[in-house]
Amino acid sequence: MIRLENVSMKFNLGIERNFSFKQAFIDFFAGKKKKKKEEFWALKDISFSVKKGEVIGLIGSNGAGKSTLLKVVSGVMKPTKGTVSVHGAISPMIELGAGFDSELTARENIYLNGSILGYSKEFIDEKFDDIVEFSELKDFLDAPVRNFSSGMVAKLAFSIATIVNPEILIVDEILSVGDIKFQEKSKNKMLEMIKGGTTVLYVSHSLESIQELCDRVVWIEHGQIVKIGETKELCQEYYKKQMGRELKSKK
Amino acid sequence: MQKAKNIILNFKKYSFLMRQLITRDFKVKYKRSVLGVVWSLLYPVLMMAVMAIVFSQMFRFQQEGVSYLVYLMTGLIMFQYFSEATNNAMVSVVSNFALISKVYIPKYIFPIAKCLFVGINFILTLIPWFILILLTQVGLGEYPASINWYYLLIPYIFFCFFLFTIGIGLLISCISVFLRDMFYIYGIILTIWNYFTPVFYSLEILPVKLQMIFKFNPLYQFITAVRSIVLYGARPSFTTLGIIGLIAVGTLALGSYVFKKNQDKFIYYI
């Protein structure tokens, strides 16, 4: 389903500064020689493949490159080197509610966001009630999203994103959305999709939910794969490395 | 061939998104305004009224033998469309950054949606424009405008004008991603362009040498073609119509090429 071969991703940290007269002026008088390009490899030589129906967890500390990896897979970024091949429709949930217009009502935003995710009008018409029902926002349908609380926005976004049964689901730390009740509900929804054969790439810092959901885990550090392997072992190893003590198993 | 097929498929796939973006713009634009979409009709009329008073009454501009009001309004609505559409298109990519960095969407959708959105407004402004033409028939102003079969050519001219606008829109939206200064620079370019396009004056008041140079202005070509039909009842020559088509296709090709070449780099600069 998903296949990454030697994927590397380079960011140019200098971009922000090099591009102004002010900086050029300062550099000129400071007598600075042309400085070396500050390069940063967010991903280095990543290769792995995901089979259909597999649930892969990505772990690693902040800035390890997990989100960049998701962006590369979802096509938002093109890798500097290497190839990514993806077969199947992707539903990205990288950040919920990115496509909302705060001036529009919830109803209008369902259509707007749905179209951004690539749904057709007929499809949204058909699923509209399900989306509203799941989001628990029936009473606020015609209120502008501007007035929503962040939890409400997230609920709405989650409901729109998960209404399809995508072949591939990309999830970046979203099970912490909404109140406890909704968290439970969204987790169940995820489980239901996984059972339905959806391939999932899942990023989370909650080892608990990783252990619960994932078949395999990819551990990334400094843009490189540390290890790929069985969920439980790797989670324990990761926890030990990070915290210096054993991860207590729930069971 | 395959490529052309892909482009068409993509257009189909994203046409709903395009429509959503355009409706969004409409809704947001007229939110909380009492007159709402009526402004699309009213605004050009009022603008023209102001300009007409300033230029025909104060500066005594006029066009020998033709209706100055129609002359003015034709140039005005066309330039207004061009400047508004390109301006909106320019910021569209940068202002939709939140989306672009999270979901894969073909990025050309944003500038094109803006050109279409302003285009719909433009089509609405054609209503008061045509009413004005009718009014000159019954004695508004000194001379009547002409109504004739060559009007059928106007959609072709507007279509080319639209393609030209998209081309420029793609080009500057791409540049502005890398060079945010473009927002300011383009404002100045538009002002200069406005004065160098015979919107309220006629080219004949300039020295002959300058006239030649002014004719290289694509906007002049578009506006003049429409004016010659509406004011003089004359068909623009086939050369003119051909040139208009070439300008449109050429600009669109240039804009698309530059945009396509650079679109993968956008994400690092926004």
Apparent shape of chain A = globular
CATH superfamily of the largest domain in chain A: P-loop containing nucleotide triphosphate hydrolases
Strand content of chain A: 15-25%
Corresponding CATH architecture of the largest domain in chain A:
3-Layer(aba) Sandwich
N-to-C CA distance of chain A: 33 Å
Number of helices of chain B: 11
Order of helices and strands of chain B: HHHHHHHHHHH
Largest sheet entry of chain B: none
Q: How much of the residues of chain B is beta strand, in percent?
A: under 5%
CATH topology of the largest domain in chain A: Rossmann fold
What's the Cα radius of gyration of chain B?
A: 20 Å
Largest interface: A-B, 29 and 26 residues
**Beta strands of chain B, count:** 0
Protein structure class of chain A: alpha/beta
Poorly predicted runs of chain B: none
Shape of chain B: globular
Number of individual domains of chain A? 2
Q: Major sheet of chain A: size, sense and barrel closure?
A: 6 strands, mixed
CATH class of the largest domain in chain A: Alpha Beta
Q: What does the average pLDDT of chain A come to?
A: 82
